[in-house]
Design a protein that fits this description.
With 576 residues, the chain is α+β, with helices and mostly antiparallel strands. 24% of the residues lie in helices and 23% in strands. The protein folds into two domains: 4-203, no CATH class; 287-574, no CATH class. An eight-stranded antiparallel β-sheet has the order 3-4-5-9-10-8-7-6, with helices on one face.
Length: 576
């Protein structure tokens, strides 16, 4: 069959284009990705780096290719430094099909110390520069705000990250600041050794500072004008729920007109646009509104996650897949180059489980033996994540009554754990909610070898939409579960008065239940599993949760025993 499709092969690699003799032919790998709510066209340029083009930039795709503006001699001749403490230039691209594009290119300063004289407001002295994706996300969000008033900005076109790595002393970044930035809301994984260049559309006009120079405005009048228009910009931003921590007259662009005037709206006010958003952020009140709205949206979507979603509505970077009887939304994590399977049919849930939203938030280890952690994600979602032990030899004492069966059976793969959890729930046995499976992007060392290859062999024919096995021995897998605090159906209606999960062993230690009740519960859970055709080969009281009601009392079943919910599936297998 032919691999060509719309000028590219089916794998996204651009076909070789006709070029004049002697010119270098570059290869481009192109795909659609979503980062912090923006659909980018991600172009990997062989030997050069990565270019992320926004919807605003797509009409100028060729002009934004680094060979058409960043080529050394061309850039040196065309660039004009702009005012400010950052490395920022006005430049233009080479003509492509007769069209050249005026650009503003700015080197991102994420992870560096903010110059003391940058701030015009002392209370913001603890600010941090935005990451490139964070900056574009906030600018696009602000531009799309509905309601009265409009914040005009220059359009974000693309982010370019050259392949060449630079030393920390060259960038001024610190590892500590980068780590802090990674923990902050709505950030992504960053390569501390790579540069990020933000490309904006050039806006015609003059800054409030340049306008005074242009018209030779007297100092006193100039100061009054700059103060007034800056305060107006600050107020307009505040009304929309945003602030720029270093707002200054140089960031306010107006359009000069003859006779020492400027473009004005129908009310006679100066029309202005804002530039420079490396210190843009939401106001605290708006930040809380956004988080609460996002959490509410998540809860409703989780309740309806298995509802019908037409495949044609899926964005280009996500795919509906079916593994072990469970529907997933599959896609890659652009920030880590990992892969992810999110339970359900709703592609909108995928973004909530991007690793940057939960891997670096404050966490509590829930097990003294295994890598199991509770965290509250950047979207205020309570999650439990566990590092899968698939491929490991179980660490079980030979005196254990189930030793031989455990050693023969081995640990379940993540997809098996999820299949068992969902099946048990459908059969009427309560379980915690299976949410997502994350596969790390980084491969293990070549010398790494999983001692137990049985699961990898079993899944070798179960492929991703990219044609690779869903289970690979040289990657780490993390299962993500809902932290038990109530039924999805209940939380979608009323996001308050949460339950709290506590395993039976811990409940016994805290004297919430007696040893007699503990034994009765263990017998009950084991019997229910057996009745449904399942067996936990290493069953113990820490493998199921009890529910503490908001009043601190244990919730009870009709038989008078505490309600339970199975929470560990690593060694559960079907008996028939």
């Amino acid at each position: 069959m032919s691999v060509e499709k719309d000028g590219k092969n089916i794998f996204g690699w651009s076909l070789q284009r006709a070029v004049p003799a002697g010119r270098l032919v570059r290869m481009y790998h192109e795909q659609t990705v979503n980062i912090l709510g923006i659909d980018y066209t991600h172009i990997e340029i062989a030997g050069q780096g990565d270019l992320y083009i926004t919807p605003f930039g797509l009409p100028f795709r060729d002009q934004l290719l680094p060979e058409n503006w960043h080529e050394k001699e061309w850039f040196r001749e065309q660039r004009v430094p702009l005012e400010g403490t950052s490395t920022i230039y006005h430049t233009k691209s080479k003509p492509v099909r007769g069209l050249s594009k005026d650009l503003v290119v700015k080197w991102c300063r994420v992870g560096t110390v903010i110059p003391v004289d940058t701030f015009s407001f002392q209370e913001f002295a603890a600010g941090e520069f935005n990451s490139p994706y964070e900056e574009f996300s906030l600018v696009m969000e602000m531009r799309n705000q509905k309601g009265e008033g409009r914040i005009r900005t220059h359009k974000p076109l693309a982010i370019y990250s050259p392949l060449k790595k630079v030393e920390l002393w060259q960038t001024g970044r610190s590892k500590t600041r980068i780590e802090q930035k990674k923990r902050k809301y709505r950030d992504v994984e960053l390569d501390i050794y790579r540069q990020y260049i933000l490309i904006y559309e050039w806006i015609k006009g003059q800054s409030a500072v340049e306008l005074c120079r242009l018209y030779a405005v007297p100092d006193e009048e100039c100061i009054a004008f700059q103060k007034a228009i800056t305060e107006r910009a600050v107020a307009d931003l505040q009304n929309k729920g945003y602030r720029v921590l270093d707002m200054k007259p140089a960031h306010v662009i107006v359009r000069p007109k003859p006779e020492r005037d400027m473009l004005r709206d129908k009310n006679g006010n100066a029309v202005y646009a804002l530039v420079d958003f490396e210190l843009l952020e939401r106001t605290p009140a708006h930040e809380l509104q956004v988080l609460q709205a996002r959490r509410s949206d998540y809860l409703v979507r989780q309740r309806d996650r298995f509802g019908d979603v037409p495949e044609k509505t899926f964005p280009k970077h996500l795919y509906p897949v079916h593994i072990g009887g469970i529907d997933y939304v599959y896609g890659t994590s652009e920030s880590t180059h990992g892969e992810m399977w999110v339970v359900g049919r709703d592609p909108s849930l995928f973004d909530f489980f991007q690793p940057e939203r939960w891997r670096r938030t404050e966490r509590t280890q829930l097990s003294g033996v295994n890598d199991v952690y509770y965290t509250r994600s950047k979207d205020l979602i309570n999650l439990v994540w566990k590092i899968s032990r698939v491929g490991e030899i179980p660490d079980i004492d030979s005196s254990h009554p189930g030793y031989e069966a455990i050693m023969h059976f081995g640990y379940n793969a993540p997809f098996e754990e999820f299949q068992i959890a969902v099946e048990l729930s459908l059969l009427g046995l309560p379980t915690i909610y299976a949410r997502a499976i994350y596969m790390s992007g980084r491969e293990a060392e070549d010398s790494f070898y999983a001692p137990d290859q049985s699961r990898y062999n079993a899944f070798k024919d179960n492929l991703t939409p990219k044609g690779q096995s869903v289970l690979r021995h040289n990657h780490t897998y993390i299962t993500i579960w809902g932290y038990w605090n109530g039924l999805d159906e209940f939380l979608a209606r009323k996001d308050s008065e949460y339950c709290k999960g506590i395993n039976a062993d811990e409940a016994l230690r805290r004297e919430l239940i007696s040893a007699h009740v503990h034994r009765g519960l263990c017998d009950k859970v084991a019997y229910r599993l057996k009745l449904l055709g399942y067996n936990d080969l290493n069953f113990k009281g820490s493998h199921f949760l009890l529910s503490l009601a908001p009043n601190g009392k244990l919730m009870l079943d009709p038989d008078g025993l505490p309600s339970f919910r199975v929470s560990n599936f690593s060694l559960i297998h079907k008996t028939h």
